[in-house]
Design goal:
The chain has about 950 residues and is of the alpha/beta class. Helix 39 (about 880-895) runs parallel beside helix 40.
């Protein structure tokens, strides 16, 4: 094999037994063309050969005269070999030591098993390769930049002390779960979650504050420490809002975009850039906040193909990178808020960030509060307040709440402040954060207490709050999130105001590097200050007050789609192609909270009561009319006696606004506007905190209701917050919602009290046998329960037996859905006993449950004694011909079964023949579905005359 060579001067190169030893000179001769083809940097070799006196300056000059890289390598090899064994070995040693420059030769070095001699090990090797040095500089700078998390002008926190894992879920284009992300390397592993092999972008999305930016910072930190093993030599990170800073006529080339806005090579930038162009697969890009781009640049002018060397508008470069038209093969992570539509053809994977699970929150609490006593105090308050817990599932809000805890639980503040122990709104949390920042700015006094009420503190800094609010409002109007020094000055924001910590400096992209550029700590904080301005500024009229409500209502009929360019779809004239309007929604929500009745005491010191009254009246009138228009149409539900209303995803924001008012009057008014009794909120991006808003509205209803929350992010915290309305809910759908056994326990305890639930949907959650036992108890104790959907969970034979026994005792259960669990044959036998002579059970699914012939035969035998079941799904099990024969015998007796699904089992033509023969004695059954079994199309022709046998 090539490379099995050895030195005759005591140098360690592995050889198979019997191989003749050869010198390093011979090694270089044998592998000459391989070395010529893979050595792309000659300067580093020349520098080290000169440094160790193996080459003279004349040798170096001879090499440099050759025009091509390949010829230079050939000349170096000639000179090295002519100088003997030691020089030849040192040449190989340099290749081994300078890994970054000669990484393509590392497999070859491993193959020949090279180990340097003692003499050569004493020789120094210096990495002078410009590409390697740039990679080292990039790692150093990105490592330094990612070490701390900057939350304010005067507060930095070590990333390692604040970062905690959260739920990251791989999803399909239709947002169906494909599993969770354990290690961050899995984001780039095509073995899991790949949905488009032609796409190059990992699209990470989630709500504001859910942790998208800090995730990218963690990835950056791991890469800088060489702890992210994904084959990336280069890492370029961009905040997408920077692209809004470029002027319409501004042009830049790709090289400058990469180097100027990350870090610049110290040596030979042209060679570094050439290397990047040659090896794009070694590049990792992160683009954070795609929804935060605001630009009037006409994307229709973007050419189909961009040159990497020609200057063009930076947005065009961004689009071309994402499309794979530039640096095709590079790795890319793009983040955006939920609701930002990205075209499918650029996406390789979709990752949904869901925030903290219960365990994640416990870990974060332990990380944040090092003191055990204080940690226990915080944990107890969280447990006592499910609403607070739900807010803490969003990492940003959790950090704000914990910072408030930390501040008010210090020795100076502990007796004076506590977070509320009842309903907590997001407005409460942000007001508390503002108060904390203002309090920290007050100079301490040894003789005088510094404790002030919230109203006093806000009154003392009224002008500062108004100035910050004015700038936030101006930016919000233009969807602008970065502010130049001129804008700060024109809003009358002083240096003292800047020190309050609500703004932080950011790198300037406008070319005015001498002037500071600012942004709010988070987009939600800019939304809050915008709402604060709308309340505090007395000149704000009805038009301005409702301005952002109108912005949001205009998007209900047409969802925003990023990258509207010719290769996607035609862009409407004057339309912002990037914009997501969640920041407007947050502004509206905070506006409702700040104008709530409970805030009048605070604002009477800041605004005239007459102005507040006028604004409250305007807002409440708008909310009432908006609810009426949103809920005026409904359709009949598939469930009898229910009128269904399918709301738009943006309706969740209306619920949040209603909840922030904390007004029972507003809640009753909204309930009166809702004439339907089946509320469908599936796929609305509702989170656990939204369940407080849902309960706030629904508890005003007097009649029984159906609530569909399938495919959201409700989890156990959300279930706890639905407690006030369980007395009204007869239909509850919570499929695909991260519900665990703890949440199921709450459901059992609440629903068993009221005995009205008829439909319980818990498909595709995280329920184990423990949770299955609670569902079983509910089936047994609640005579109103008719439908139970609990498939695609983690239920084994133990949980299956409990459910089967409960069904056996129930006289009212109509349908049980168990698809995708693992009850196996033991569970199947228990269900067989439940089926025997059951008076009511009509629809049964035991599909994909690991049931073999033994379990199948038990079910078939029991079905001979059943007259209620009409539909039976046994798809994706392990049933063979023997089981099919048992079902054939059953069909000769059972004349009530209408549909039998045996799709994707192990039945052959022999089993199908038995079933076909049985149909001669059964005229009731309409179909036996056998698709995906061990039957060829040729064999299936024998059953063409029996239309009820479906093989293909």
């Amino acid at each position: 094999m090539e490379g099995q060579l050895c030195s005759n001067v005591g140098i360690s190169v592995k050889n198979p037994p019997g191989a003749s030893p050869q010198s390093f000179i011979a090694l270089l001769k044998v592998h000459r063309e391989l070395l010529v083809g893979r050595i792309r940097n000659t300067q580093c070799l020349i520098d080290n050969l000169i440094k160790n006196d193996y080459f003279s300056t004349e040798d170096a000059e001879i090499v440099v005269q050759f025009p091509t890289q390949a010829d230079k390598v050939r000349k170096i090899l000639d000179l090295v070999q002519s100088k003997g064994e030691e020089v030849s070995e040192y040449f190989v040693y340099v290749l081994q030591k300078v890994t970054d420059a000669y990484y393509e030769l590392q497999p070859w070095l491993d193959e020949i098993g090279y180990e340097p001699s003692e003499n050569i090990c004493s020789k120094p090797v210096v990495n002078t390769d410009p590409v390697s040095r740039y990679c080292q500089k990039l790692r150093h700078e990105l490592g330094r930049d990612s070490k701390f998390l900057c939350y304010a002008q005067k507060e930095e926190v070590l990333l390692e002390e604040i970062y905690s894992n959260s739920i990251m879920e791989l999803v399909s284009f239709t947002n169906e779960s494909l599993g969770q992300v354990g290690q961050l390397e899995a984001l780039f592993d095509d073995a899991v979650g790949l949905i488009n092999e032609d796409g190059e972008t990992v699209y990470v999305y989630g709500d504001a504050g859910i942790g998208k930016s800090i995730l990218l910072q963690k990835i950056q930190s791991l890469w800088a420490r060489r702890e992210l093993d994904i084959g990336a030599k280069f890492f370029f990170r961009f905040r997408c809002r920077m692209f809004s800073c470029f002027k319409e006529d501004e042009a830049i080339c790709l090289k400058d975009l990469l180097f100027k806005y990350n870090c610049y090579p110290d040596q030979d930038p042209a060679e570094v850039f050439h290397h990047i162009l040659q090896f794009p697969h070694t590049v990792l890009f992160t683009f954070d906040g795609f929804d935060e781009i605001y630009s009037s640049f006409d994307l229709s002018s973007v050419p189909e193909v961009c040159s990497p060397n020609e200057p063009i508008h930076p947005l065009a470069l961004l689009v071309s990178l994402l499309r794979g038209k530039l640096l095709k093969g590079s790795k890319k992570i793009l983040t955006a808020r939920t609701g930002t539509e990205i075209q499918k053809n650029i996406i390789r994977k979709k990752v949904l960030l869901r925030g903290f699970s219960r365990n994640n929150l416990k870990e974060y609490t332990a990380m944040f509060f090092k003191d055990e006593q204080r940690r226990a105090l915080v944990s107890n308050q969280l447990e006592a307040n499910p609403n607070l817990c739900s807010l803490c599932s969003v990492p940003l809000f959790c950090w704000i709440i914990f910072k408030c805890f930390e501040h008010f639980h210090s020795s100076q503040w502990f007796d004076g402040h506590e977070l509320p122990d009842s309903s907590v709104t997001l407005t409460d949390v942000f007001l508390l954060m503002i108060e904390v920042h203002l309090n920290r700015s007050v100079k301490t006094s040894l003789l005088k207490s510094n404790i002030r009420s919230q109203a006093e503190m806000f009154k003392s800094r009224k002008e500062s709050l108004l100035a910050l609010g004015k700038m936030a409002y101006k930016g919000m109007e233009n969807s602008s999130f970065i502010f130049e020094q001129e804008e700060v000055s024109s809003a009358n924001i002083s240096e003292e105001d800047l020190q309050l910590g609500f703004l932080r400096t950011v790198k300037s992209y406008s070319g005015c590097d001498s002037q500071a550029t600012y942004e709010f700590l988070h987009l939600t904080l800019q939304s809050f200050f915008t709402a604060l301005f709308l309340v505090m500024e007395e000149k704000v009229g009805t038009k301005e007050l409702l301005e952002f409500f109108n912005e949001c209502s205009s998007m209900e009929t047409a969802q925003p789609t990023c990258l509207r360019i010719p290769w996607l779809k035609k862009q409407l004239a004057g339309e912002d192609p990037f914009q997501n309007k969640e920041h407007f929604n947050f502004t509206n929500m905070f506006l409702c909270g700040l104008l709530s009745g409970s805030r009048q005491k605070l604002f009477r010191h800041l605004v005239s009561p007459a102005v507040i009254k006028r604004k409250r009246k305007t807002l409440i009138t708008y909310l009432g009319e908006s609810m009426k228009s949103r809920l005026k149409g409904y359709t009949r539900s598939r469930l009898k006696s229910y009128n269904q209303v399918q709301v738009q995803p943006n309706f969740v924001w209306m619920l949040r606004c209603l909840y922030e008012t904390q007004s029972e009057k507003v809640g009753r008014m909204a309930a009166r506007r809702m004439h339907a009794n089946y509320i469908k909120l599936a796929y609305c991006n509702a989170c656990s905190a939204d369940c407080s808003a849902i309960s706030f509205l629904l508890h005003h209803f007097q009649k029984h209701l159906a609530l569909d929350l399938d495919n959201n992010n409700i989890n156990d915290y959300g279930i706890k917050q639905l407690q006030p309305c369980f007395s009204k809910l007869a239909v509850i759908r919570l499929s695909v919602n991260q519900v665990t056994d703890h949440g199921v326990r709450i459901l059992y305890e609440e629903l068993s009290k009221y005995q009205i639930v008829s439909f319980l949907g818990l498909y595709n959650n995280q329920i184990t046998d423990v949770g299955a036992k609670y569902v079983a108890k509910l089936i047994e104790e609640c005579s109103s329960l008719e439908y139970v959907k609990i498939g695609a969970n983690k239920i084994t034979s133990e949980g299956g037996k409990c459910l089967a026994q409960a069904i056996q005792k129930s006289k009212t259960i109509f349908e049980i859905g168990m698809w995708g669990n693992q009850v196996g044959d033991e569970g199947a036998k228990a269900f067989a006993e439940a089926l025997r002579n059951h008076p009511k059970l009509t629809n049964v699914s035991l599909a994909f449950n690991g049931i073999t012939t033994e379990g199948g035969k038990s079910i078939a035998e029991a079905m001979q004694h059943n007259n209620s079941v009409r539909i039976f799904w046994l798809t994706k099990n392990e049933l063979d011909d023997e089981a099919a024969m048992s079902f054939a015998e059953m069909l000769k007796v059972n004349k009530k079964l209408v549909h039998l699904w045996l799709i994707q089992n192990q039945i052959t033509a022999k089993g199908v023949k038995c079933l076909s023969e049985a149909l001669k004695e059964n005229t009731t059954i309409q179909e036996i579905c056998l698709n995906g079994n061990l039957i060829s199309q040729e064999e299936a022709k024998a059953f063409e005359n029996e239309e009820r046998i479906i093989c293909f």
